[in-house]
Design brief:
heterodimer, A: about 190 residues, mainly alpha, 3-stranded antiparallel beta sheet, B: about 200 residues, 3 strands
Chain lengths: ~190, ~200
Amino acid sequence: MTDREYAALSRVILIRLGLFGLPAGMLAAYLWYVGGAAWWGSFLLIPAKILIFWTEIAFNGREFTYAVPLELGGTSALVYQVNQLNLTFLEFVTLFAAWQHSSAKAAFKLLGWCLLWLIFYHVFSLFIQCYSLEIGPDFANQQHIMWESSWWFRVVKNVAAFDKFLLRFWAGFPVFGLALVFSSFTFKAKRKKS
Amino acid sequence: MIDQKDNTSRFKSFHRKYRPEIKFVLIFSILLGVSFKLVYNKTVADSVILPITIAETYVASLVLNSPILKHPNRQKGNVLIGTKGNPFRMEVRNNCNGVYESIVFLAAFIAIQIPWRRKIGWVAIGFLLFHMVNEMRLISLFIIGSGYSHETFVFFHETFWQYALVIVTLGIFLFCAHQVSKHQVIDANKLEEST
């Protein structure tokens, strides 16, 4: 892209952010807090159960419970609040609304990719946060299990910390960016075919 | 049918067409990873991030004590303590000081392919604006925490202000990037006219 195109694009997105992005984000926030969070959590439970198949996951309307089997028998539950996913959701809606779509078909395609990446990312976040707790010292202390640090734990802890850093503020942006890249690829491929 | 050759050439043309964007994403991601490691390092957190947090708490305390806002409080390190019958206390933690968000803002500006002499001024303006918004966030959270329910405080703390900061950062970045690229276009036009 040329400087001229960048200057025009940044101006258009800035205007669209105020005109469409912000109102869409407000509406998404309202819907999220009047039951949308519970609905999204219930929906996310299905792919989470498929993708994290070796443990039991349940959702009670506010939080996911991730069952950890104990060595001496029985299970213990780790909790993940669904509201931690709020910002990613709002950001994706805001960016989707602010983006200038070339056609309705392109918009639907982008929406599909956004949702797909959002689901993958949310399931990954749920897994990595719970798993880092499962193999961490706090959980071992609670269960009176001997605990020793390992390189694997350090890797998982760092990935989980980076995920938290993204999740609290920015994760909607990489989700939207990935969707944009994949959408542009598939959209061009289809046009070439015809 | 799309064969392997088509796919390879599509990737190649994508790479050629979006080379600056790919470069931007790579530099941005590396900077983000490095700065993430830095801010989570205990020494950096104690010697750099904490003093910034304390300074921001100090400014918030001054503004809250001013005759305009009339929310008497006492500042102790990174904690704001309500006085004159206000039992509310608010601890400004290391991830509430706007440092993490400003890192993303700076990383985006470093990664953007524009000469430093053009962008440095806008980076400074954006950074200042951004921290002013963060001060507004701290001040408003203390006022909300002092006078409203815990649920209201949680909503403003976890959703409203976080979302607002992200959008403000994006807005400031887009505005500054637009100003910089606009001037570059004007300069290019002038050069064309003169030749």
